[in-house]
Amino acid sequence: MILFRGLNRPALRKLFTGLVVSALSFHGAASLSAQDAKEPKPAAQQPSGQEEKKAQDQPLLTIGSKAPALDVEHWVQNGNGKFKPVTKFEDGKVYVVEFWATWCGPCIASMPHLAETQKQYADKGVQLISISDEDLETVETFLKREIEGAGDGADTPKTYRQLTSAYCLTTDPDRSSETDYMKAAEQNGIPTAFIVGKSGQIEWIGHPMEMDEPLKSVVEDKWDRTAYLAEFNRQREEQVQMQKLFTLLNRGKMDDAMKMLDELIEKKEDAQAKMQFQMLKLQVMLQQDEKKDEVAGFAKTVLDGIAEDPMMINQICWAFVEMSEAGRIDNPDLLKTALAATVNAAEKAEAESKGAILDTLAHLYQLTGELDKAIETQKKAVEVAGDEMKEELEAYLKKLEDEKAGKK
To answer: How many domains does the chain have?
Structure first.
C-alpha cells in the first residue's frame, strides 16, 4: 500500500517536515491512525537493569520458538467465567498473548477488536490474554471509565470493564511476562500480540489489529510458519537498518546517512519500498542547505515515479507549498518542479479529488509569481470542490483577488 494515501493535510505536514520513524512502517500500515500506531513505553516504565540483563541472557524469542510459560499475578477479567488462568499452554489450543497499558491510546483503540475476536473464536479453542505491567489499582481505575461515544443499545458496553469482559484482561506488575515476551522478542512498542499455536510455539508477532488472517490460518491449520518466519526476519532487518539510519541522522552524520539511503534505494526491488526511501532522502535533503541545488532534480525523480497517482503527487506537493509559505524552505526550482507535476496530476485526477489538486496548483502558481493563473485555477477549484472544502477554497480565492487588487 502507498505510504501517504489517506493522510489529511495536517497529518502529512507532520509526517513530511519531521523525520518520523513510524511513518516508514514495514508492517503494511498506510496511515498513522491509532489502529496502526504503536506507542513506546514511557521512560518510567522501561525495564530495570536486572530485567534488562535477564532479557539479554535469554535466546531471542521469534517465530517457531517455544512460548514461555505465563506467571501473571492478577487475572482481572476471565471472559465472564469462561476461561481459567493460564500458566502452561495446552496442546491443541490457540492463545493470543497481547501486551497493553492504560496510558496507551492504540491499546485502548484495539480493545473492541480484541473483544470481538475472542467472541468469534471462543468456541474454537482460542483464549485471548491481555497483559499490562501496571499495578492492580491503576487497571481497576481504568476499567471504571465510561467509553466515550458509547451507543444506547442494551448490549452496548458502557465502561471498559464491560468491554473487556469478553476476554482475559490481566496485569503483571513484576513485569516477568513482559521480560519473557516483549524483551525476549525485542519488541519495544505496544500493543503487541503473540499468537501461540496448537503446538505451543510462537506463530506470529505483531499489532493486534493486523492479526485476523494469521489467527484464522493458525486455527484452521493452514498457517505457513516457515514463510512467515522469512517475512518476519526481513521486517526485523529493515527495522535494524532504519534504526541505524536514524542514529546517523540524529548524530548529524548527514553524509553517512545519505550514503546509506542511496544504498538502500539501490537495493530495493519493490517499487513501494524504494519510493519510501526516496521520500525519506528527499526529507533529509530539504533540511540541508548544501543540497538546495540538488533537491528539485531529485524531487522530479520521485514525482515522475508516481506520475499515475494524482492524489499522492498532490499530497507531496502540498507539503512543499506549506513549507514554502511557512518560510521553512526557499527553493524556486523545487516549486517549479512541483508545479509541473501538479499540472499533470490535475489532468489525471478523478472528480472527487480535482478540487484539492487545483487548490494546490493555485498555491503553486501564486508562489511562483503567476497570480492571474492562480486566480483562474482557484476559481475552477471552487467550482468542482465538495461542500467540505468549498469555504476554505473560497477564502483563498478572496485572498488572491485581494492581492491582485493591491489590498493588504
So the answer is: 1
